[in-house]
Amino acid sequence: MNISIIGTGYVGLVTGACLAELGMNVLCVDKDEDKINNLVKGIIPIYEPQLEDIITRNYNDSRRLKFTTNIEEAVEYSKAIFIAVPTPTDETGIADLQFVFKVASEIGMYINGYKVIVDKSTVPIGTGQKVKEEINRILQKRNKCIDFDVVSNPEFLREGNAVKDFVNPSRIVIGAESEKAIDIMKKIYSIQDIFNIPIIITNIETAEMIKYASNTFLATKVSFINEIANMCELCNADVSVVSEGMGLDSRIGSKFLNAGPGFGGSCFPKDTKAFIGIGKTLGYIPNIVRTVIDVNDVQKKNMFKKIKKVVGKLENKTITILGISFKPETDDIRESPAISIIKELLDNKAVVKAFDPKAMDNAKKYYPELNIEYCDDIDFACIDTDCIVLITEWEQFKNLNFEKLKYIVRTPNFLDLRNIYDPEYIKNSGFLYEGVGRK
Q1: Do 2-202 and 268-434 come out as alike in CATH topology?
Q2: pLDDT for 94
Q3: Cα–Cα distances in Å, from 338 out to 155, 322, 364, 368, 386?
């Protein structure tokens, strides 16, 4: 099957590469000429485990993966067209759908036969119907009557695990209004179907809601356990043990019950705000989700307060930040708690040194105004520091040599904002230890 992916951001690039790997002929299109030229040269705009190898293999070897800036070619080429363009939220939480509708208009302009148009971007409930209306509006202007279907097929890709999540997902959601469209979508996911991956067939609006309901619930778990952690610090309880005890209950589960500096990334912050916006348009305010956002914002500020409490006056004090990305195995720094903490430190005239295995280039690119000393390795980042702050749980941060570090730091303070280490082990190594919801 020939498939086009419109938009080569995180979702579009992973989707296109993985579909090619599964045997489809995939044409990825983007209006950004520099991005497409780089992809043709083998320069991948994001870091995601396995992705570069898959793109190289399918572009250079099998030739199943191609790149273009020509959307007319992409529309005419394919049986299914995936829309994977950005849907940012504004200050009020309303999702900006201008890119989605721009693509819908262009599809309407160039469509030349039956197509399945797949909303892969995370979009508010009701967007699928609006995409259909926009395509029909353009077709009427062209005096054309061409059959097509719009499908909602939300993505559930975890950054750092996106390739695995696409090939072997927990579920596939297809929101469609015709058996013809459903059959085509099942063919696209035929390999997953062979391995009995659950496929949920529903209407478009329900599929759109499943995406938001899933992400807002996971964000709720994160904010909930952070509230528990804050209370644990006030009553001599250990949130790590509390999380373990909760997670063993099958009704609750252990995932997303790790206390820390709050959630970030491209999904949870955007989707929770968008969900509030959706509620407003429906005349209903989802108060739990609104509180989730508030708790998350406060949690980031609490992490700064922890540093200040340990170090005291921050002016001219050196703080080492280990981890800038919002989670390990990605270079994504969008809404990263580390960035919020760094900004607060710099505002208080601290000296900030930082190391991250993948995200430092993005930090330099998107936050050039931040006066951060980027370091080549962990040891250099810790020389003469007054406090080491572990923010992102990269694998190489899980086996720090504290016996060595205590001889190169100025003051042996260690803030473990991911609760990776045993507090007694750190204390016995000569460091002051501070975690989240534990001492």
Answers
A1: yes
A2: 86
A3: 26, 9, 14, 15, 17
Question: Using CA atoms, how far apart are residues 227 and 113, in angstroms rounded to an integer?
Answer: 54
pLDDT average, residue stretch 77-106:
92
Spans of all domains in the chain: 2-202, 268-434
% of the chain surpassing 90 pLDDT: 97
- Lookup result for tokens 């197509």: 115
Mean pLDDT of 406-421: 97
pLDDT, position 439: 74
Token representation of residue 124: 């508010």
For residue 250, what is the DSSP state?
Answer: T
Among 338, 388, 347, 390, smallest CA distance to 366 is for 338
- State residue 89's pLDDT score: 86
Q: Quick one: pLDDT at residue 91?
A: 76
| Helix (DSSP H) and strand (DSSP E) numbers for the chain | 18, 14
Checking if the pLDDT of 157 tops 90, the result is yes
Instruction: Give Cα separations from 344 to 152, 230, 298, 300, 369 (angstroms).
Output: 40, 20, 13, 10, 13
Q: Which CATH architecture has domain 2-202?
A: 3-Layer(aba) Sandwich (3.40)
Lateral strand order in the sheet of 413-416: 372-374, 351-355, 318-322, 387-390, 413-416, 432-434
Nearest one of 386, 398, 287, 375 to 345, comparing CA atoms: 386
Averaged pLDDT for residues 45-65:
95
Mean of pLDDT over the chain: 96
In this model, does residue 438 exceed pLDDT 80? yes
pTM as predicted: 0.93
Q: What sign has the CA pseudo-torsion 144, 146, 152, 153?
A: negative
Decide if 220 contacts 214 (C-beta within 8 A). Answer: no
* Residue 76 neighbours by CB under 8 Å, 6+ apart: 110, 112
At 81, give phi and psi (nearest 5°): -120, 115
Residue 150 bridge partners (DSSP): 117
Q: Which helix (H) or strand (E) holds 14?
A: helix 10-21
Please give the pLDDT value at position 394.
Answer: 97
Superfamily of domain 268-434: NAD(P)-binding Rossmann-like Domain (3.40.50.720)
Under 8 Å CB-to-CB from 410, ≥6 apart: which residues?
A: 318, 384, 385, 386
User: Angle, to 10 degrees, between the axis of helix 337-347 and the axis of helix 287-311?
Assistant: 50
Q: How many residues appear in the chain?
A: 439
Active-site amino acid positions: 267
3-state secondary structure of 66: strand
